[in-house]
Amino acid sequence: MRIVSLLPSATEIVYALGLGDALAGVTFECDEPASARVEKAVVVGGRDTRGMTPVEIDRYVKERMAAGDDLYTLHADALAGLAPDLILTQDLCRVCALPSGHVEDALDHLGCRSDVLSLDPYTLDDVLGTFLAVGERAGVPERATALVETSRQRLAAVADLVADRPAPRVTVVAWVDPPFGAGHWVPDMIRAAGGDPVAARPGARSAETTWEALRAPDPEFVLVTPCGFHLDGAAEQAARVVPHFPGAQVWAIDGDGLVVRPGPRLIDGVEAIAAILHPDAVPRPGPGVIRRVA
Question: What pTM value is reported for the model?
Answer without folding.
Answer: 0.88
